Automatic annotation (TrEMBL):
<keyword id="KW-1003">Cell membrane</keyword>
<feature type="transmembrane region" description="Helical">
    <location>
        <begin position="59"/>
        <end position="82"/>
    </location>
</feature>
<dbReference type="GO" id="GO:0043190">
    <property type="term" value="C:ATP-binding cassette (ABC) transporter complex"/>
</dbReference>
<keyword id="KW-1133">Transmembrane helix</keyword>
<dbReference type="InterPro" id="IPR047817">
    <property type="entry name" value="ABC2_TM_bact-type"/>
</dbReference>
<dbReference type="InterPro" id="IPR000412">
    <property type="entry name" value="ABC_2_transport"/>
</dbReference>
<keyword id="KW-0812">Transmembrane</keyword>
<dbReference type="GO" id="GO:0140359">
    <property type="term" value="F:ABC-type transporter activity"/>
</dbReference>
<dbReference type="GO" id="GO:0046677">
    <property type="term" value="P:response to antibiotic"/>
</dbReference>
<feature type="transmembrane region" description="Helical">
    <location>
        <begin position="175"/>
        <end position="194"/>
    </location>
</feature>
<dbReference type="InterPro" id="IPR051784">
    <property type="entry name" value="Nod_factor_ABC_transporter"/>
</dbReference>
<protein>
    <recommendedName>
        <fullName>Transport permease protein</fullName>
    </recommendedName>
</protein>
<comment type="similarity">
    <text>Belongs to the ABC-2 integral membrane protein family.</text>
</comment>
<keyword id="KW-0813">Transport</keyword>
<feature type="domain" description="ABC transmembrane type-2">
    <location>
        <begin position="27"/>
        <end position="263"/>
    </location>
</feature>
<keyword id="KW-0046">Antibiotic resistance</keyword>
<dbReference type="Pfam" id="PF01061">
    <property type="entry name" value="ABC2_membrane"/>
</dbReference>
Amino acid sequence: MPRMPASLRDSGVIAKRNLINIKRNPDWLLEGTVQPIMFVLLFAFVFGGSLGGERYREFLIAGIFVQTVAFNSSFTVIGLANDLQRGIVERFRALPMSRVAVLLGRTSSDLAVSVLTVVIMSVCGLLVGWRLRGDFTDVVLAYLVLLLFSFAMSWVGAFIGLIARSVEVAQSAGLLWLFPVTFISSAFVSAEAMPTPLRVFAQWNPITVNADLLRELFGNPVRVGMPAPTSWPAEHALLYAVGSSVLIVLIFVPLAVGRYRKVASR
C-alpha cells in the first residue's frame, strides 16, 4: 500500500482507539465541557454586569471558544504521556504501522473532542444571550478557523506530552503555559487597556486575533468600551489567524515526530 494512504489508515485506527477510550472513561470529557461552562457563567454573570452586561456576554463567547480549544490541547499532552508511561507506545512500535500515525491519530481524535466541546459551548452561549448575527458563510468560516487553531494547538500538546517525564508532569506542563497566554489576550477583555508590553504581546497573540476574528464573523462586538485596534494582526485578522495556525503546525509536527522517534527507539 502506498505510504500516505497507509499512514492515514493507521491514523484512523489510532483515532478510533482513542475515542473508544474516551467513551469508556467519560469523566475525561468533564474538563473539556464543565470548565468552559463555568468560565461562561462566571464572566457573564459575576463580572459581566460591570464589563458591559448583555453586550459583554456576546463579546465573551468567542474568547471562551478560543480558550477552550487551546486548553483542549491538554488532552493530547496527557493522552500521549499516559500511553508512554503504560508502555502502549512500545506496543505500537512493534506493529507494522507508520510512525506518524500515533501522533496524527491522537491529534485527530482530540480534534473530534474539540468539535463536541464547541457544540456544547455554542448551546451554552445561546442560553446566556449570545447570538449569531453574521452571514451563514461567515459563521461556517469562523468555526473552521477555530477548529484549525484547535488542531494546531494539539500538535503543541503532542510535543509537550512526549517530553514530559510522567503523567503528573504532563498534567502541569500541559496547562501551566496556557494560563498566561490565554489571559494576556483579548479573550476576556480588550487588549488596549493593558500596559504597553502586555498590549503588544496581546496584539500579536494568536488567541487575540482568533477571538477577534470570530467576533467579527459571528457579528458580535469586537471591542467593548475600547477603541478598535490598529495593529497589523488586527487589520489582517483572517490572514494572521490562519497563517499562525499553519505555522504552528509546520513547526510542531516535525518537532513532535522527531521526539516520538527518539522516544520509540529507546
